[in-house]
């Protein structure tokens, strides 16, 4: 009997590593034959390697997970990964494909594994994805309102800093410190107001006073207090995750 194969497509390294670890625990027989951190790479790998299962993050650089699914030349069982529960359209309820809501819990992933194993064992054909992708694209929340640039003042200059350049945001008094690879900048705004302007798939609140860009997280170490200590790109000192937000990093 041939092994079951899968490809993981997720642009955030720590989330991709966590998903791979969870799958290894819940489905030891599954062989993860490749990983991708952008849509173009995911599509190339999927069409070349033809896996039995494809785990697709809906939001990735380049092609989105939906665009990858629509362009697949090989029928495969698709699991979408998303930070938005609005994607849970009726097609999911009928098990045409499955979806995982970030952060992925082991309990929810176990349901997905059971569904996939059942479909594969019964040789259920992979669902036609074009109609489903159209439904999902219609449900896709608009990102036009999410902040793309921070406008900061430095002396007499006004600088524009792309959100992708900011690794950490820390609130203190009436200001927010933006930590970038180039240094720190001050922004006069409340963290709560700013949080609503940031894409939730890309930025996580990890304490009352701190928001981190997920892609900038290099390592998450669990602490005896129940929280986590993050190593964030460009910062020499670790950043604490409070217990209230530890679920973002817990395995189950």
Explain how this protein is built:
It is a single chain. Helices cover 27% and strands 32% of the residues. It has 252 residues and is α/β, with parallel strands linked by helices. The chain folds into two domains: 4-139, Response regulator (Rossmann fold); 149-248, OB fold (Dihydrolipoamide Acetyltransferase, E2P) (Beta Barrel), CATH 2.40.50. The strands form four sheets. Strands 2-1-3-4-5 form a five-stranded parallel beta sheet, sandwiched between helices. The longest helix is centred in the middle third of the chain and has 16 residues, at 106-121. The protein starts with a strand and ends in an 11-residue tail after the last strand. The relative contact order is 0.11.
Strand content: 25-35%
Helix content: 25-40%
Q: What is the C-alpha radius of gyration, as a whole number of Å?
A: 20 Å
Return the string of H and E elements.
EHEHEHEHEHHEEEEEHEEEEE
* Structural category: alpha/beta
Give a quick account of the main beta sheet: strands, pairing sense, barrel closure: 5 strands, parallel
Q: How many β strands by DSSP?
A: 15
CATH structural fold name of the largest domain: Rossmann fold
Low-confidence stretches: none
CATH class of the largest domain: Alpha Beta
């Amino acid at each position: 009997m041939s092994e079951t194969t899968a490809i993981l497509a997720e642009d955030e390294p720590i989330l991709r590593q966590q998903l791979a670890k969870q799958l290894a625990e819940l489905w030891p027989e599954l062989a993860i034959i490749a990983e991708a951190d952008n849509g173009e790479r995911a599509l190339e790998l999927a069409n070349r390697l033809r896996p039995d299962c494809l785990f697709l993050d809906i939001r990735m650089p380049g092609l989105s997970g939906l665009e990858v699914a629509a362009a697949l030349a090989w029928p495969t069982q698709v699991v979408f990964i998303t930070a938005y529960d609005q994607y849970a359209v009726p097609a999911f309820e009928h098990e045409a494909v499955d979806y995982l809501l970030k952060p992925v819990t082991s309990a929810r992933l176990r349901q997905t594994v059971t569904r996939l194993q059942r479909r594969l064992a019964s040789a259920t054909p992979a669902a036609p994805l074009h109609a489903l992708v159209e439904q999902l694209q219609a449900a896709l929340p608009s990102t036009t309102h999410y902040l793309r640039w921070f406008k900061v003042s430095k002396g007499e200059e006004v600088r524009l800093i792309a959100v992708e350049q900011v690794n950490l945001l820390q609130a203190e008094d009436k200001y927010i410190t933006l930590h970038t690879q180039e240094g720190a900048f001050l922004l006069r705004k409340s963290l709560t107001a700013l949080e609503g302007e940031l894409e939730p798939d890309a930025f996580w609140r990890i304490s009352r006073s701190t928001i981190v860009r997920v892609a900038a997280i290099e390592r998450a170490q669990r602490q005896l207090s129940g929280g986590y200590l993050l190593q964030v790109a460009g910062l020499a000192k670790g950043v604490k995750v409070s217990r209230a937000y530890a679920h973002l990093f817990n395995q189950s």
